[in-house]
Amino acid sequence: MSADIPAAADPLFTPGEPILKDTIAEMTYGAVEAAAKRGAVALWAFGVVEQHGPHLPTGTDIYIPSARLRIVRKLLARDGIEALIVPPFYWGVNHVSASFPASFKVRPEVMIELMADVIASLGGDGFRRLFCVSGHGDADHNRAVFRGVEKGSTPGRIEAAFVADDALFARIGVDATSPHALATIPQPNPTPPPPFADVHAGDWETSLMLALNPEVVHADRIADLAPTNLSEDDLAEWRKGHDHARRVTPDGYLGDPASASAERGASDIVRDARAIADAIRLRLAGER
Ligand SMILES: [Zn+2]
Fold first, then answer.
1. Which of 51, 275, 283, 284 is the most buried (most CB within 10 A)?
2. Residue pair 200/206 in contact by the 8 Å Cβ criterion
3. d(Cα 137, Cα 169) in Å, to the nearest integer?
């Protein structure tokens, strides 16, 4: 096994890890070339800079999937699968948060073309498989990820797949049986679902950030944030985006940040990573 593959005894994550940790950006070109020659697969996270309420940084959707992929890499290594992480994509499509500041808006066609070029570069470097994950729930952003994966894949050179759960594929209208889609493997979850929608900078994302990167969380603001307690109809209105979203959630968050727990965030991130790593392992074995 290569020295680049983490040892099984490595902890799955340590709080405070930087976004570029364990990515190609920390490696020399020679080490990248050698890994591609050994048949390493590539992993790539699609986040976005976007408002995340009064307490979470605008880079939340970059921090979380980057950490998820670092754990996926370690889990794959335990099964003898070498993986390299591409530095995260962070200029994406913001439809829902578009009316808030610091929520940068890239046209989907620009994102898709950029993805195609980066995927072609990876293919040129000798990578044959690329697995992409998303850190941002916006439907238009995720449709762009899927279209970029389709456009960048070149049979016989590099095959890319968008790894996501069935619920996301259904919401964005992607056929989960497409060769460019890979559904995650559901994992047992001891936490009951929240009583109200909690989809943006609420309990779920705040818990993850408290576990992963507490140094960039404005923890002193969390206790004062009242739960939004929104219905499914409110959520549908929020998903119309722009000023609709700003009216439904004037403070930017949708959920219950004050209920967040770093301990739950730590178990959630590992469960998410297992769901991805299990799917990749089965795809590489030709079983999915
Ligand atoms: Zn987010």
1. 51
2. no
3. 11
Strand segments (E) across 135-233: 159-164, 181-183
Cut 0.90: pTM above it: yes
Distance 202 CA to ligand 1 centre (A): 9
**For the chain, which residues score pLDDT lower than 70?**
1-9
Neighbours of ion ligand 1 (CB under 5 A): 60-61
* 76 within a domain of the structure (yes/no): yes
155 φ, ψ to 5°?
A: -55, 135
Domain contains 85: yes
* Domain of 138, in residue numbers: 14-190+268-284
95 CA to middle of ligand 1, Å? 13
DSSP labels for 26-86?
GS-HHHHHHHHHTT-EEEEEE-----BTTTB-TTHHHHHHHHHHHHHHHHHHHTT--EEEE
For ligand 1, the distance from its centroid to the CA atom of residue 161, given in whole angstroms, is 22
Q: What's residue 288's pLDDT?
A: 84
Query: If we measure between CA atoms, which residue out of 213, 187, 156, 176 comes closest to residue 20?
Result: 213
Identify whether the C-beta of residue 128 lies closer than 8 Å to the C-beta of residue 271.
Answer: no
CATH number, domain of 276, equals 3.40.50.10310
Distance 3 CA to ligand 1 centre (A): 34
Residue 174 lies in a domain: yes
Any domain includes 91: yes
Structure tokens at 172: 């964005």
Residue 117: predicted pLDDT: 98
Ligand 1 centroid, distance to 264 Cα (angstroms): 17
Burial of residue 194 (CB within 10 Å: 0-12, 13-18, 19+) is middle
